[in-house]
Amino acid sequence: MPEDEARFRMDLARLLWQKLTDVPSALDELQAVVDMVQSAAGGPGRSSRSAGTVASDEDHKGRIIDILRPVYERADDWRKLISLNDERFALAVDDGERVETLRESAALWLERGKDPSKAFDAVRRAWELDPDSFELREQLEKLGEATERWDDLAQAYETAVSRTEGTTRRELLVALATVHDKRRDDPRSALGAWTRLSLLDEDNIASLEEMDVLATLLSDWDALVGVLVKKAELLVDSDSRLRLGDG
Asked: Which residues contact 57 (CB under 8 A, 6 or more apart)?
């Protein structure tokens, strides 16, 4: 019977691994067990479910993961798949692989675990590795909306701002200021974000308008004076350009 042969091969794999320290041969037997049991009727079975206990040798983790992933996928054991993804993350050689692993885990947490907060954590880690990704940012914002984790979303924006530049950084500062103002009820932090944006884009009148409102709300008269001076300068410059254009 295939199940009996699988059990014997599992015993052989354990013997090779534990007593003879022949990890490659043990993994060959483990692969044979997985192939055998998966092709048999009735699903993975007891032998393949215990496959994860056969070996934990650091030098062979990559192969062990490759063997176990189809087992857990067939068994629809999404929690063990997430555990394997943690191992895959540790073994990944570049950020692209790490991001993909985290995205897979996020999807499992959301679709199988029905846990948007855990999914938020995974996507946040992925976005920290690739802060220029609009897709990851959009996914994180949706999860932030679903979980109302506004403080964590604001911190994620801060991290991304520090790791981006140009248009992306300016867009993130707008998003950060909006979260502080509309979601966290923190006008002081919102004013700070708009101020940082104004320093990056001195001709952005929209950021000055937001700063005007917030500075007035906070009774921050020094900040308001600076905003009004800057707005006046922009208006003068605009009028000068118009007159030169007419001339």
From this structure: 17, 23, 64
Cα first-last separation, the chain? 96
214 torsion bin: left (phi>0), alpha (psi -120 to 50), beta (else): alpha
HSE-CB of 37 using CA atoms within 13 angstroms: 30
User: What is the pTM for the complete model shown?
Assistant: 0.79
Q: Average per-residue pLDDT in the chain?
A: 84
Q: pLDDT tens across 30-69, in order?
A: 766 666 666 554 444 444 444 554 445 556 677 778 878 8
What does the alpha-carbon distance between residue 92 and residue 11 come to, in Å, rounded to a whole number?
Answer: 31
220 CA to centre of own chain: 37
Residue 2 has pLDDT above 70, yes or no: no
CB 231 within 8 A of CB 205: yes
Nearest to residue 210, comparing CAs of 194, 222, 230, 187?
194
Write down the H helix ranges in the chain: 2-18, 23-39, 45-49, 61-75, 78-91, 95-111, 116-129, 134-147, 150-162, 166-178, 187-200, 205-218, 221-246
pLDDT in tens, 213-236: 999 999 999 999 999 999 988 877
Burial, 154: exposed, middle or buried (Cβ in 10 Å; 0-12, 13-18, 19+)?
buried
Residue 50 contacts residue 80 (beta carbons within 8 Å):
no
